[in-house]
Amino acid sequence: MSRGEIKAIQIFEVVPDLVVEILSPSETTSRWAEIFADYASIRVPELWRLDPETESVEVDTLADGRYVLANRFESVDEVHSSVLPELALPVRSIFE
């Protein structure tokens, strides 16, 4: 591909319906505020936070430009999603 052809390629920006983040012990509350703000600025409708320490999943949904905790699922539960309504994912299977 020549340099001219590379310049002619169009870039499409697509916002994901769902983002999954894995919690790290080193992440601070202020870092999570930044992460939420970044995803909210591009209007990602749903954000999952996976916590390997507690084997839980928190599902946050975007409402009025901010993320609101929609649900928290423990290891014995199945994760359900507003953007993937057919999904019933066992939490335990995420952490195996």
What would your notes on this structure say?
The structure is a single chain. The protein has 96 residues and is α+β, with helices and mostly antiparallel strands. The chain has a single domain, classed as Alpha-Beta Complex (tt1808, chain A). It is built from 3 helices and 6 strands; from the N terminus they run H-E-H-E-E-E-E-E-H. The protein has helices at 3-8, 29-41, 91-95, and strands spanning 18-22, 46-51, 56-63, 66-73, 78-79, 89-90. Strand 1, helix 2 and strand 2 (46-51) form a beta-alpha-beta unit. The longest helix has 13 residues, at 29-41. The model has no long low-confidence stretch (mean pLDDT 90).
Poorly predicted segments: none
Which percent range describes the beta-strand content? 25-35%
Say which CATH homologous superfamily is assigned.
tt1808, chain A
Q: Report mean pLDDT, rounded to a whole number.
A: 90
The overall number of domains is: 1
Number of strands: 6
**SSE-based structural type:** alpha+beta
Spatial order of strands in the largest sheet: 1-2-3-4
Whole-Å distance between the termini? Answer: 43 Å
CATH architecture: Alpha-Beta Complex
| CATH class annotation | Alpha Beta
Principal-axis shape: globular
Oligomeric form: single chain
CATH overall fold name: tt1808, chain A
Query: In sequence order, what are the helices and strands, one letter per element?
Result: HEHEEEEEH
Sheet of most strands: 4 strands, mixed
Q: Over all CA atoms, what is the radius of gyration?
A: 17 Å
| Helix residue percentage | 25-40%
Count up the helices.
Answer: 3
